[in-house]
UniProtKB/TrEMBL annotation:
Originating species: Ensifer adhaerens (Sinorhizobium morelense)
Family: Belongs to the BexD/CtrA/VexA family.
Taxonomic lineage: Bacteria, Pseudomonadati, Pseudomonadota, Alphaproteobacteria, Hyphomicrobiales
InterPro entries (alphabetical): Poly_export, Poly_export_N, SLBB_dom, Soluble_ligand-bd
Listed name of the protein: Polysaccharide export protein
Signal peptide feature range: 1-18
Topology with respect to the bilayer: Multi-pass membrane protein
């Protein structure tokens, strides 16, 4: 009978110690069991809906490749702009040459005339003896040919040169952590992202702590300035109307749970892998760490989430209540199983992002040990008291 009671006590301890023992964060099973469930399924209206993705070669490679092509591929911003065209507000000089001295634009001193025009809101500008000419949407060469054609029969063997003085219609705005925030005009040859940042005085802080956001219409993309320099494919051609914002935001990540040092860490001047980030926190506690429960909590890009989960699963999670943040990113939790022999190799290729939370779950046995420590203390006190009473009784006899 005594053995049965002991067995029942142990089973009760194993199943209930999580509820009565203080713990530093959830256990691995709790994180996995809540994943993929709606607030209704969790019986918590305020629950954040998330999904868990294993860190393996596929996920690590996909995330690493994606982070190197944020602007050039995800937003389709990488192509060289088409030939520059005249736009509203542009200032032009139209030079008209004639073969004879008695032409419309000729004088005794010159057989040419220079006419300055500004393209009006209707896209047109007036040329003497020609009338209004549509410039907006034309290249300089197309505008030249249009004027020559209009002058035929009026001027003496006319020829025309159209020169651009000011390109008010082809400007980009550069603001934020630059030395001279400004509106930068684009040349006819076009500029790349680093070109316009340089024209705005260059980056004010360290390149590895400065994020560059390009907004084009209803699309936007963000990349580190250092990545922009290191990866030429991200140095995209800018287009008229682009808004470029630089923000200095020192990159940081936080490590919590069963590790030797719970704290926020700075990236410094280099990118970090998950293994390197764990190493900076002096690794896990051998006696407390659950090797199968190393997690990265992150709001991930929607395109990455859809690729990792599959389109059908991703859509199902959205219907369950997985909500994007203000930047369109969705909550994902990555799990690295350190009990697998290849985990150290995979972890070296999995990149840590700014503001990631790395959580190392404790092992269940840690809670069991705490439980026995808690329930054992009063038992030890009672046992000590009982021994003292027996001794006192023996002395009295």
């Amino acid at each position: 009978m005594k053995c049965i009671l002991v067995a029942l006590f142990l089973v009760s301890a194993l199943t209930s110690c999580q509820d009565v023992v203080p713990g530093a964060g959830p256990l691995t099973d709790a994180i996995l069991s809540d994943a993929g469930k709606s607030p209704e399924e969790l019986h918590r209206n305020d629950a954040t809906v998330y999904e868990v993705v294993d860190v393996d070669n596929r996920s690590a490679s996909l995330i690493s490749a994606y982070s190197k092509t944020t602007l050039s591929k995800r937003l389709g911003m990488g192509g060289r702009p088409e030939s520059a065209t005249v736009g509203i507000g542009d200032r032009l000089v139209v030079s008209i040459f004639e073969a004879g001295a008695d032409g419309l634009f000729s004088t005794s001193k010159s057989k040419a005339a220079k006419i300055s025009v500004v393209v009006q809101p209707d896209g047109k500008a007036a040329i003497p003896y020609v009338g209004e000419v549509r410039f907006a949407g034309l290249t300089l060469e197309q505008a030249r040919r249009a004027i020559v054609e209009a002058l035929k029969g009026k001027a003496v063997e006319p020829d025309v040169i159209v020169t651009s003085l000011d390109t008010a219609s082809r400007n980009v705005t550069v603001t934020g952590a630059v030395n001279a925030a400004s509106v930068v005009p684009l040349s006819l040859a076009g500029e790349k992202l680093t070109d316009v940042i340089t024209k705005a005085g260059g980056v004010r802080g360290e390149t590895y702590d400065t994020f560059v956001t390009v907004t084009r219409g209803n699309k936007s993309g963000t990349v580190l300035m250092s990545a922009l320099i290191d990866n030429p494919t991200e140095n995209i051609w800018v287009q008229s109307g682009d808004e470029i914002t630089l923000v200095r935001d020192p990159r940081q990540f936080t490590v919590l749970g069963a590790v030797k040092s719970n704290k926020r860490q700075a990236f410094g001047s280099r990118d970090l892998s998950l293994i390197e980030a764990l190493g900076m926190s002096r690794g896990g506690n051998d006696l407390a760490t659950d090797a199968e429960g190393v997690f990265v909590f992150r709001y991930e890009e929607a395109e990455i989430a859809a690729s990792l989960l599959g389109r059908s699963r991703y859509e199902a999670m959205l219907k369950k209540g997985m909500r994007p943040d203000s930047h369109g990113r969705v909550p994902l939790v990555y799990r690295l199983d350190m009990s697998r022999p290849d985990s150290l190799l995979v972890g070296q290729t999995f990149p840590v992002n700014n503001r990631d939370i790395i959580y190392v779950s404790r092992h269940l046995t840690t809670d069991i040990s705490k439980f026995f420590g808690i329930v054992g203390q009063p038992l030890r006190v009672a046992n000590t008291g009982a021994i003292a009473m027996h001794r006192a009784a023996d002395l009295g006899n």
